[in-house]
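User: Thanks for the earlier help. One more: Type I restriction-modification system DNA methylase. Can you show the sequence and predicted structure together?

Assistant: Of course, both are below.
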Amino acid sequence: MNINAQPMKLSVILDKDVQYEIPTFQRSYSWKEKQVETLFNDIETEPSPYYVGNLLVDTSGEKERVLDGQQRLTTLSLILLATYVHMQRKLKDDQQELSDGLSSQLHEDIVYIKNNLRINDNRESRLTLLKRDQESWAHLLQMIDDPHKIPEGKGQYSLGKRFKFIFEKLFEGYDAPMLHNFYTDKLSKIEVLKIMTDDISDGYQVFSSFNGKGIPLTPLDLVKGIYFSQRGSLESKWEQLTEIFTDGDRADESKMTRFVLNNYDAFESESTSSLTKSKIVSTYENLFNKYGTNYIEELINRAKNYREIDNDDDFYRYDLSGLDKLDATTSYPLVLNLLVNKKQYELSDDQFNQIIRVLINFYIRRNYVLTPKASNLRSSLNGLRLRISSGHLLGEELVQVVQNKVGELTPSDTAFIEAIKNGVYDVNKKTTRFILIALERKFGANINMFNKSNPDSLDAFDGKNLRWTIEHIIPQGDLKSSYWINVLGNGDAEVAQAEQSKNVHRLGNLTLTPYNSEMSQKPFREKVDLYDEDSETFVGLKAKLYLNTTIDEDAEYFNVESIDQREALLVDKLLELLKSVD
């Protein structure tokens, strides 16, 4: 193992013509404000020299490639730049107030910091980050030449946000002497254990043994190990893979983790048990040893399909967007396998969608009855996947096998009805929203709420908020209204509160409205007759929804008996809906 480890001051690490490069198989910059502030405070308050951690680099190329420690190195560079800009501004804006000695010291400091951040006569950045981070970093480095320039663009990314936080918040209150002392006594004297290797596979062995004070490794960081151990040329492929899970300026590590687990269960496992997080690295190392580095091509293709399943859609429909709303992750290996192999299984789009509908109807029941247990359910569906792939099932036969197996797992009508009697909203809000919308779409076609001039907006947002929300006819929360206390408890607040607690989240007490905040604890008749002057339409419980046709709009009050009667109607319609696969 050809490794050289030396403790060094930060001022030495960032000296001469050494350039550092973040390889593309690394993660983008991802430190949060809390981590940045912790590091800054440690530098500020701990005795000098403060040991900040390890820096593992591959020295085999023209630039030293950072294998571990990139989050710290990038953050320290941001702190250096913020120090530099503050010093330059003090020299220009407070020149009359600075002593000659302090002014000279600051001039000397900024020369050193500039050399820390740039090389080759101030022409090149010492640190080369990943593409998006590098764009932000290049913009920020413009402040070396013009400290009063506020770079436009790129500020929405993590790097720009963290610099702004350091510059404005962490250095708040720093005067010129404090800046000088912070740099010379603290920042420049930070100690780093620099570990150098010219053999990338040796680097992996060191990398695997520690992660310093950085962010814990995510499962897909194992690609680094695969790269190191197999010498695969994965840089562009790694970037392609992470981009699939990237929204904004950073990858969604939770989705990446779920993909790694589900990919194995969907395609590689020969048993019904599921891969656990603790076994991800060893399992995937075996896969790459078996298939070679080209296996990443499979991961990229499957990840694209997986994002259709584990999606960010806001739609409550009978498709993959709806399945994602129903805590249906136990079905993901099966669904991923079917989606990727749809052509091989000779599944038409209609047949695939029929399977998704069957699964949605199953999870609606399961999410209230709470059986089968999640681990047992995942195992059963993994077994179904194995049966499909080993039995060479195709087309309609495959669909029928899925329907039959899911039917065996499905809770009975009796169990389902008994479960929802006890309430639905407090058991699973998303599933409750799904069934309310599904009932409306199934049975409300002739009610005339939605038409060509007023399209279905049940999934729409107003800003960041859903336009249509779930309305509790008998209000939830503390009963403050004497009206509802009289209706539910005949004037007895304690009785009313007890009746409300037992019944408020039942299906018979729920509907949809875009005017939830205006209804609140209003009396029943006011909720029914709520009217919008601008649109000249009823927008309360008289709004033209199927769900509202099950409410007696001529009644003077709405009580527990009203819930019972309405729920009986809705449950019948819900069972009709759940037995449909069309």
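User: Great, one quick takeaway?

Assistant: Residues 210-217 have pLDDT under 50 and may be disordered.
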